[in-house]
Amino acid sequence: MNSDKVLDAKGMACPLPIVRTKKSIDGLQSGQVLEVHATDKGAKNDLAAWAKSTGHELLSATEENGVYKFWIKKA
């Protein structure tokens, strides 16, 4: 999946992946996609809930070798 920006949040514990995601997505224009890489297991539920509560769209979420990848489209 294509993204306009990639955020490396690997090794960060909650709430840092969410804080960094918010900062990164604020720098994008509406319709652009942020790709987030995280190793915190809680990020899966946290990012899905955050995207829903802020109006952004979680396009996809995958897990590979302990790295969770999320694609979030800015509202």
TrEMBL record:
- Keyword tags: Transferase
Per the database record, which ranges form the UPF0033 domain?
7-31
Molecular function as annotated in GO: transferase activity
Q: Does the keyword Transferase apply?
A: yes
Family listed: Belongs to the sulfur carrier protein TusA family.
Stated name of the protein: Sulfurtransferase TusA family protein
